[in-house]
Design goal:
Length: 256
């Protein structure tokens, strides 16, 4: 008789923690997106420039105090990386639940997550080392960061689109949006590479669309938050999802 109140209390605590995780999942992508967009806005507002006047790289180099913008870039990139990890887990959980996991699908999901994580590490790198640095090494590191960010963020967009269309729980309109955004982003990115100084605006738009793409993942987490699995992952608990799958199977057998 004494166990029942304790069980109810544990269930209530679990419900509260799950609700908190769901709230975080809804806010995290939007927060990361808005911080990156805020960086772009601050660069233009503080330097008194427009998107046609300078590249993002040059604006980052000209911004003073440089530490102020670097902190925002680091926080924004870190949040983007966390969202990418959560999305990677969400896709894996979906296929485990449906027993549709394949080596190819799992590898593709891991490659996609690695690409976006490396892309935002590159974004931090290009901000940390100015494009007009006196040191040849610093300029090379800036270029490496640029290649990583623009190349791998585009790759992530394409791979994520493929993975999303393999999931059936999302409405078609959401899938269409997540298909159009990366394609438009890649188009602007290619335009900037081809025209460079004649198309500074396309670089700004590319960075903004990349942030918006990740920000839109709030929609995906609202439909399927996978909060239990994320708690297991971030709390380093093993076997949580497998035990839940076994429990669900037993419940189905009892119902039959």
């Amino acid at each position: 008789m004494r166990v029942q109140p304790l069980t109810q209390s544990n269930e209530a605590d679990g419900g509260k923690s799950n609700a908190c995780i769901r709230l975080v999942l809804g806010v995290l992508p939007l927060l990361g997106c808005n911080i990156i967009l805020a960086v772009l806005y601050l660069l233009q507002a503080k330097l008194g420039i427009t998107m046609n006047d300078s590249s993002v790289s040059q604006a980052l180099a000209d911004y003073e105090p440089n530490l102020e913008i670097l902190v925002l870039v680091f926080i924004g990139a870190t949040l983007m990386i966390l969202v990418t990890i959560c999305r990677d887990i969400q896709i894996n959980v979906y296929h485990r639940r449906r027993r549709s996991t394949t080596c190819g699908m799992k590898a593709l999901n891991s490659i996609a997550a690695f690409a976006n994580i490396t892309a935002y590490a590159g974004f931090v790198l290009l901000a940390l080392f100015p494009v007009d640095a006196e040191s040849e090494r610093d300029r090379q590191l800036h270029n490496v960061g640029s290649y990583l960010y623009f190349g791998l963020s585009g790759l992530y967009g394409l791979l994520h689109t493929f993975l999303l269309w393999k999931q059936t729980q999302y409405p078609c309109i959401i899938k269409v949006i997540f298909t159009i955004v990366p394609l438009v982003t890649i188009a602007f990115s290619i335009t900037y590479v081809v025209k460079m100084e004649e198309a500074y605006m396309t670089e700004w738009i590319t960075v903004a669309l990349g942030a918006i793409f990740v920000g839109l993942m709030s929609l995906l987490f609202c439909v399927d938050p996978v909060d239990d699995e994320l708690i297991d992952f971030f709390c380093c608990r093993r076997g949580g999802d497998k035990s839940r799958v076994r429990t669900d199977d037993k419940r189905k057998e009892l119902l039959v």
